[in-house]
Amino acid sequence: AASRDYSAAVRGEKLEAETFPHELFGQYDLINNPTKRHMRMIRTDKWKLIYHLNAPGQHELYDLAADPGERKNVFGEPGNGDAVKDLTARLRKHMAAIEDPRLDEVQ
User: Fold this and answer.
1) CB of 61 within 8 A of CB of 47?
2) What Cα–Cα distance (Å) separates residue 56 from each residue in 8, 11, 25, 50, 83?
3) Residues contacting residue 72 through CB under 8 Å, at least 6 positions apart
4) Confidence label for 31 from pLDDT (cuts 50, 70 and 90)
5) Dihedral sign, CA of 11, 44, 21, 19?
6) Can you give the pTM of this predicted structure?
7) For burial by CB atoms within 10 Å, which of 18, 46, 91, 92 has the most?
């Protein structure tokens, strides 16, 4: 992925909307936490998926249009399967791009 220069924002200059990514990837490895959680996240304009690698029953999905405060986890609810499938594929793509050693844990 190409890097982006956002220094104009720091200087108080306005950035064009199209310069902002519409998809973000995040990696959280809580190695100093007793839970030892390993999480990967993908966020689009509409959805946010948090994949808990070592706690599969804890995955999170938020409909950001309906719930911008991320208060209601809708992972596993009827009607969200296509979103989870799409986001998981996108997540795997980002993980592959950085050669994430935990890629095979995301299905």
Assistant:
1) yes
2) 40, 42, 19, 10, 17
3) 62, 63
4) confident
5) negative
6) 0.80
7) 91
